[in-house]
Design a protein that fits this description.
By secondary structure, this protein is α+β, with helices and mostly antiparallel strands. Helix content is about 20%, strand content about 35%. It contains two helices and six strands.
Length: about 110
């Protein structure tokens, strides 16, 4: 399990992809990691300013919305199967969206 990998996770409304964003040292040494939740709605709508579309380039079967405005702490034991890994270009988009969505660019 590593930073930027995509796993299946059930946040209470069925299994959906999630992206691990915790630093690799935390992933290796701690039971809880930080994730971004995704919605596998097959990209049926345009992403908001706080979302990035992930797709086959990231190992997913179809366009999936990655929600960058909420960072969630999850016990690693709750993850199901590994689904892919976020491509380098999308990593930069996600980081930019996290910064913007949290207003950290205003500091």
């Amino acid at each position: 399990m590593n930073q930027w990998e995509i796993y299946s996770y059930d946040a209470g409304h069925g299994e959906h992809p999630c992206v691990i964003i915790s630093h690799s040292l935390r992933v290796a040494n701690k039971p809880f990691v930080e994730i971004l939740l995704c919605s596998s709605q097959r990209g049926m709508r345009v992403p908001t300013a706080a979302e990035v579309i992930l797709d086959r380039a990231d190992g997913l079967d179809w366009e999936t919305l990655c929600k960058c405005d909420l960072i969630v702490g999850v016990d690693k034991k709750q993850f199901r199967s590994r689904r892919g890994e976020v491509s380098p270009a999308r990593r930069r988009q996600i980081i930019a969206r996290i910064i913007d969505a949290h207003g950290w660019n205003l500091i």
